[in-house]
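Subject: Sanity check before I submit

Could someone independently write out the structure tokens for this chain? I want to compare against mine line by line before I put it in a report. The sequence has 254 residues.
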Amino acid sequence: MAESSKLSYIDTGKGTKTLLFIHGFCGSREYWNDIVSKLKDDFRIVAVDLRGHGESEPIAASFSIDDMANDIALVLGNLEIDQVYMFGHSLGGYITLAFAERFPGKLCGFSLVHSTALPDDAAGKEGRLKSIETIEAKGVPAFIDGLVPKLFAHSEDPRIEQTKEIGYKTSESGAIGSLHAMRNRVDRNHVLKETKLPVLLVAGEQDKVITPEKTFSVKGSHIQEMTLEGSGHMGMLETPRRLAEEIRRFVESN
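---
Independent answer below. Compare away.
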């Protein structure tokens, strides 16, 4: 546990380059287990539990995406790590963009995995409020039961149950606070356009939560795109070998 940031994390692996992984909404660092196992022999790896998720404590009742980016900066400071390659899944991607805007010098490169630089549209904002109402009325487990199957390309995917178990660990305040933070986040396409860092955008071919069009919202010579065939919103679980290969290629080429 990072005492200064209250975030739980793992710090494992070996190598001269450090990779930092941020999970998505109602997830935990466990989302990245398959990826970590495939890369830890060649890279130092840090994977965090966001506030109110996994083994991390809730921090404040109300918070923003920028606050969550500051949490990550505190973890890096606690570990005395100067620079990382950052990989953010979904909500983790929103945090990665905020981090890249606020702390570009701490990054060697960054990646959005099933994420987008676009803000919520009107329908998305309304959906966040409905999710909050569901959690307040029925609790986190009932919300997770409805959410998780939509994240996978195939409704019979055997990893759905393990993903639900991870989601059940999310605190109510962590889930509701994150929903408000996502609803209020700003458009950060300018970060993708203006960054001098190498960027990797990863989309799932069958992602119904964040479509490839939303992930690939900005083009540029510094931006690499890849689509995970057969994957929904959970490429780190659905197609881990392919994603790990792409992460390795991105890091080793930059």
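---
OP: Matches mine. For the report I'm noting this point. The chain has a mean pLDDT of 96.
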